[in-house]
Write a structure and sequence with these properties.
The chain has 215 residues and is α/β, with parallel strands linked by helices. The protein has one domain (9-208): Maf protein. The chain has 5 helices and 6 strands. It has helices at residues 17-27, 52-67, 101-115, 180-186, 188-200; strands at 9-12, 33-36, 71-79, 123-133, 139-150, 166-168. The chain has a 6-stranded mixed sheet. β1 (9-12), α1 and β2 form a beta-alpha-beta unit. α4 packs across α5 (188-200).
């Protein structure tokens, strides 16, 4: 049986402002106060895992141990089968140290064009692995996917990462064009969150707020 989250404060183990904002919006209805790893000054651990789930668990455990609070980490990325699954777990690295996702999307397009980017080869999906870890090391992992295709040029200035280049199946707007609420209803992160919420999250008693450990 999954462990229930009893604390009203949760560390989001990310320094990515867009990801922190999106996770906070998904948790808001459940009365969970969130604080980012960046705000707490926690270092970013090296992502040495071989899968999204391994990297999410690594980040969540590091933040939980350092803060003394439960921590939630997300490891997600774009998978393009025609590129052998790339950029995959290296999706953020393709954007470089300056997090230039316009350049990363252009590199995906360049490689697709070089390989022959017919409709079938433009198929892609986003993967999200969420890891919820406690200071004692206990960790729960939940995964979600959303399938679609890549468009060029990218469309829309909303979302983050590869969102402007991704058109989910059955949609007419890219993730970069969608209202955040509409994206939250269908995204890979939303699928993983529904599993997380069903297993571990209930409305938090506001009197149970915990505070970070002081070093």
């Amino acid at each position: 049986m999954s462990r229930r989250l009893a604390a009203a404060r949760l560390v989001i183990a990310s320094h990515n402002a867009g990801k922190v904002r999106e996770i906070a919006e998904l948790l808001a209805p459940f009365g969970v106060d969130v604080v980012s790893a960046g705000t707490l000054g926690l270092p970013e651990p090296e992502e040495t895992g071989a899968s999204f789930a391994e990297n999410a668990a690594l980040k969540a455990r590091a933040a939980a141990e350092a803060s003394g609070l439960p921590a939630l980490a997300d490891d997600s990325g774009l998978v393009v089968p025609a590129l052998g699954g790339a950029p995959g777990i290296h999706s953020a690295r393709w954007a470089g140290p300056k997090r230039d996702f316009a350049a990363a999307m252009a590199e995906v397009e360049r490689r697709l064009a070089a390989s022959g980017s017919d409709g079938a080869r433009r198929r892609a999906h986003f993967v999200c692995a969420l890891a919820l870890a406690w200071p004692d090391g206990h960790t729960e992992i939940f995964e979600g996917e959303v399938h679609g295709r890549l468009v060029w040029p990218p469309r829309g200035g909303r979302g983050f990462g590869y969102d402007p280049a991704f058109l989910a199946d059955g949609q007419t707007l890219t993730f970069g064009e969608m209202d955040p609420a509409a994206k939250h209803a269908i995204s890979h992160r939303a699928v993983a969150f529904r599993k997380l919420i069903a297993a571990c999250i209930q409305e938090i008693d506001r009197g149970g707020t915990e505070t970070p450990r002081k070093n």
